[in-house]
Amino acid sequence: MLNKSPLWKSLLVLFVVAFGALYASPNLYGEDPAVQVSGLRGVEADAATLDNVRAQLEQDKIDFASIALEKGQVLVRFHDTESQLKGRDLLDENLGNQFSVALNLTPATPEWLADIGGTPMKLGLDLSGGVSFLMEVNMNEAIIKAKEAMVGDFRNDLRGEKIRYRSVKEGAKGINIQFRNVEDLAKAKSLLKKRYRDLLLVDNEDTLMLTASMTEQKLKETREYALQQNITIIRNRVNELGVAEPLVQRQGQKHIVIELPGVQDTARAKEILNATATIEFRMVDTEGDLANALNGRVPGSSELLYDRDGKPTLLKKRVMLTGDHIVDAGSSFDEYSRPQVNITLDSPGGSKFSNATKNNIGKPMATVFIEYKATDKLDPQGNTVFEKIEEVISVATIQARLGKSFRITGAGSQAEAHNLALLLRAGALIAPIQIVEERTVGPTLGAENVQLGFQAIMMGFGLVFIFMMIYYRAFGVVANLALGANLVLIVGVMSMIPGATLTLPGMAGIVLTVGMAVDANVLIFERIREEMRQGKSVQQAIHQGYDAAFSTILDANITTLIAALILFAVGTGPIKGFAVTLSIGIVTSMFTAVVGTRTVVNAVWGGKRLEKLSI
């Protein structure tokens, strides 16, 4: 019998729509205005902080809905924005500079719905409010660090091949390697030419010097590597901050854009994002005279550094290992209940550290904490000059040959050890960065954008609804039901996909989808009319209408989907947001406009003897 759907197909359509409606429903509950209290500079919020926050709010009679300690942060929910702002001002004034007090919006989803993974759509910066940073990577420091690494690599290579040299140091034009005779110079040039094909090697037999300099291609690759690695590391740090759906992407040759939706207080974000913390391991110079070094007579191969208490230590300049090889770090306590940081290295780092420590068992080794901080000075190119701050955090005797996993102590408190582990785990920035622009979008403006976008969607939906009702009558009602189901499915899918974020351009994509979704039904209904004008029966007209129009609908939607996927692949920011909702809308509209409407049409008109249709 024509136009009769099997029961399983009808149930499948109902299940898909109901499933989409279930996961779209968290968006109906809205969000509670909240204040988030988190620690700064290694301090963590704990039960005492929770009690302190509650006491202050109750003392000032500021009404709040709930308060809880979650993941080392105190989260206070309020009934309205006015109480939220009062609570923020109070806590910001009384908690001191050890805590960050940030405005936030927390989903009010019921617990049973959250337990099955139901969450509202993530809103972008333009809809939820938040902060945006434009950060500049200091490429000069990236080149300097690359040259410092080359000095160490050249020394290791020459020692490994037992080629004698006088010195390896940076010069004005590159790395200068001084030799004792022409034979060693020739051997070194041959060795380095094989291992470093992207370097320019120039030898001078008169001065017995070999100069290695970076080609333009190598300089370009170094800058590109610094930018890409910094993006990866910053993304890891943002994830450590626990910010939902952040955006981290490059802009131009040396800039990075970071958007943190929902964040209104930038103190904690700045501290973690701007930090360039790393560590170095160096041997203590036990042969040098510390007293002479304090008087300014520091040996050429050594350097005088201090710990946080001002205690001096004379260290070898040669770096045994840098933090670039760290793949994991975590904080814990040692057998004496002292805070420690457990470090795991990658394979090259483990091999390098093993070779560096095997001949130094019984000797003291220092762990040096390094941080770059921006100054008010500018270099001749107009770039900010960064100050390198070095601090000895521990000096320990090497008891055995160290490998891929080891631990360091001397971090101070457990909170400081945790913060250091966070930075090391996220990675050390290849080059220092600085914030050149900071923009804050308030929650009020975001709410206004949401309201205007929602009005645009409802207006588009309403006009299409009226047109379909008038022009196609009963079949127009079916098309409108499919259009409503399509909107529900778009919201449900956007809510279920972890990486999907709704932006203002994304709302434009939904409005466009509303118009496109009925295109399929227009094609089908017009084909049914045409078949009936040719004298076909009602059932034959319906059957031919759906079958004949399907290929046209499929071709049109596939070409649009390809365009949307290309926009998503090559676009950034707002373009991606538009492409996401458009792609989802195309797929869901194909289901609702073709499968969904046919199921309803078959249920209402299918298999019946009819002389005419309300179309």
UniProtKB/TrEMBL annotation:
SecD export protein N-terminal TM domain location: 2-103
Tell me the protein's name: Protein translocase subunit SecD
Q: Does Cell membrane count among this protein's keywords?
A: yes
Function, as annotated: Part of the Sec protein translocase complex. Interacts with the SecYEG preprotein conducting channel. SecDF uses the proton motive force (PMF) to complete protein translocation after the ATP-dependent function of SecA.
Kindly give the InterPro entries that the UniProt entry links to this protein: SecD, SecD-TM, SecD/SecF_arch_bac, SecD/SecF_CS, SecD_1st, SecD_SecF_C, SecD_SecF_C_bact, SecDF_P1_head
MF GO annotations = protein-transporting ATPase activity
Keyword list, A-Z: Cell membrane, Membrane, Protein transport, Translocation, Transmembrane, Transmembrane helix, Transport
Residues in domain Protein translocase subunit SecDF P1?
A: 227-285
Q: Which family does it belong to?
A: Belongs to the SecD/SecF family. SecD subfamily.
Known partners and oligomeric status: Forms a complex with SecF. Part of the essential Sec protein translocation apparatus which comprises SecA, SecYEG and auxiliary proteins SecDF-YajC and YidC.
Membrane-crossing residue ranges in chain numbering: 452-471, 478-497, 503-525, 546-570, 582-605
Q: Name one GO biological process term.
A: protein transport by the Sec complex
Query: Is this entry keyworded Cytoplasm?
Result: no
Kindly list the places in or outside the cell where this protein is found, as annotated in its UniProt entry.
Answer: Cell membrane
Question: Any idea where the SecDF P1 head subdomain domain is?
Answer: 303-431
* A cellular component annotation (GO) from this entry: plasma membrane
According to its record, how does it sit in the membrane? Multi-pass membrane protein
Every copy of the Protein export membrane protein SecD/SecF C-terminal domain together lies at: 433-594
